[in-house]
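Deviation from plan, reported transparently: heme C complex.
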Amino acid sequence: MNSSGYFAQSQHGFSIARFLLVAAAFMLAIAVVFAFLHVTSTGQIEAQGLDFETNDELTVERGRYLALAGNCASCHTAERGEFMAGGLAFETPFGTIFSTNITPDPETGIGNWTGEEFLTSMRRGVRPDGQHLYPVFPYTAFSKITDDDVVALYAYLKSIPAVRQVAPENELTFPFNQRSLMSFWKVMFFKEGAFQANVAESAEWNRGAYIVEALAHCGACHTPRNFLGAELADKAMAGGEYIDEVPGGAKRPWSAPNLTPASNGLGLWPEEEIVAYLKTGMNKYVESFGPMNEVIMNSTRHLGEGDVSAMAAYLKSLPPHESSAGVAADNSILGMGRTVYNLHCGTCHLPSGLGDDESAPQLARGSLVVQASNPASLINVILYSPELPDPPLPTKRRKPMEEFQYLLTDAEVAAVASYVRSKWGNNGGRVTAEQVARQREAAH
Ligand code: HEC
Ligand code: HEC
Ligand code: HEC
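Because the crystal trials were delayed, the predicted structure below was used instead.
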């Protein structure tokens, strides 16, 4: 949890405070140099030729669709809270950030915001008072939304019921509680600007790229981030981590698998199975569970078939980002894993790992979660069972998977995870008992 523990063990004999000071000065120096080259603006965008008064039915309806594609409601509606009234907590390595009220309430929502102010928050990540927003609000993606679509989103948000509700105060550690410091972050990691079509590609490819990159922000979870929380552009969609709050307030990390067409990523699924998964929450191989539930249930399944196909085609066109499979598990671990599998998993997932419609998903070159470089989500599934969508999807499965947290030790979970990652042509590498322990700790 506390990174200062790491610094305290440092062998180099300098104090933590001095180290942090030097690091801060260094960052500042870099930031100043960058700032000369490229200044982040906290000013409002002057929108020329945009009519933010537009509120005809067609525009409002288009805005509603775009809000579904951007999944605004999942983040801006708290559990059992009012629609879009904010207050949902987001766990980051730097503390807790709460989503805000984006209903048209004039005092606590965005009712008094001008269209330009709304455009500035979406495109630039800046509030009407000139303060920077935190990128938990995925404006690094939303910046790419076109002017016309921002107008439609604005018209839609103005049309929903106003709710009076103030968002709770963020709980961030110093220095991350200083919004002004975000200007350095932005200089280094944020590129402002609407999506530019690639004329060398088809209209379908461009539509898919636009939805995936600008609206659906799949990369927010599926792209790895650096130590300052910025997405690594050269590893776009190659697999990231997402921290979820579990009932009781503890934080559980999840791995989001590789969405490039790599051998442990979307290379495993033909385009039509990607479409089926995003459109219905299930395909030939798997069913939705965990953090993907809200992506699929609240967003992608409401999108038109054409848009979902375009997303799938775009993802399949990305350069495959092959990652190292990690250390291979040795035979004693695989032997133990086989025993656990045959005893506890094989009845449903079958000895072949192929599963079937009635019993369980396909673990043999089917589920991306099984072979993801980071096994956190695979371990979560085994320890806590797959968390199903609520309300549930119609399923042909006879019996849900149970949890194994009380039945299996860390070593047994690690062994069975290593086994399913290495068997049947899978190439995922070993899982350690320490990795399992990490997923258990998070739940308590
Ligand atoms: C992944 C979660 C997430 C998604 C998806 C998301 N938001 Fe947000 N949004 C946030 C958080 C968190 C904040 C608060 C950020 C802060 O305090 O700096 C925020 C802030 C905002 C703000 C600034 C409000 C203010 O009072 O300063 C606007 C406007 C906004 N979001 C609109 C949208 C729209 C429109 C969508 C859908 C297209 C959307 N958001 C989708 C998490 C999200
Ligand atoms: C809030 C974070 C988040 C967002 C946003 C997100 N994902 Fe995921 N995704 C995950 C996590 C975590 C997993 C692994 C656990 C699970 O399936 O829920 C996952 C799993 C997947 C899988 C593999 C499913 C399986 O069972 O093998 C696919 C495919 C996928 N996501 C596609 C997408 C696409 C396409 C988008 C954008 C439309 C997207 N995801 C957006 C977090 C996210
Ligand atoms: C009673 C039958 C049953 C047993 C026993 C069982 N599972 Fe499952 N498993 C399921 C079902 C059903 C799902 C699909 C749940 C969903 O995602 O909606 C599932 C999902 C999974 C997934 C997620 C696949 C994906 O990407 O969607 C993994 C991984 C998995 N099981 C591994 C295991 C392992 C390892 C064991 C043994 C320790 C095991 N299961 C035991 C029925 C079972």
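The pocket of heme C (ligand 2) is lined by residues 216-218, 220-222, 242, 254, 256-257, 259, 277-278, 286, 289-292, 295, 300, 367-369, 377 (CB under 6 Å). We consider this an acceptable substitute for the interim report.
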